[in-house]
Amino acid sequence: MSLRSLYGNIILDHYKNPRNMGELPEADVVVEARNPLCGDELTLYLKLDDNQRLAEVKFTGVGCAISQASASMMTVAVQGLPKEEAEELIQLFKQMVMGEAELDAEAEARLGDLVSLEGVSQLHNRVKCATLAWNALQEGLEEFARGGSRAELVEKAD
Ligand code: ZN
Prior knowledge:
This protein has helices spanning 3-6, 9-16, 65-78, 83-97, 105-111, 127-145; strands at residues 29-35, 40-48, 54-62, 150-154. It is of the alpha+beta class. The protein has one domain: Sufe protein. Chain: A (Alpha-Beta Complex), CATH 3.90.1010.10.
């Protein structure tokens, strides 16, 4: 996959017009996440309802197009999902950008626009940019399960 198609319209659109960007004062969990390998930073805000659904997901951040677009797309993809389904999507997305997933029609349907980030699997040093928001979400869900409300995540080199 070429760089041109990697930085496709969907990614650029989410980078320039991020969805669900902003603070969420009533969040149940706030995760501060950093990827020092690239300089990406984001804060993820999660609100869960009584049925363990992700009622609201927002983020603020600065960083490269891949990290910010991935965060924006993630908030859209997991909004309203039950916790278990969000966790399944985290695994599927990470497998895709790490080049470990065979994407059949069902997987592509579940990923939707996120498939536009598949090309990251060809750029090893950008994988952590793409997974930052997703690892932050995982961390936030685990912190929520532990009864906590704040978590921090710092990516490390492999
Ligand atoms: Zn980055």
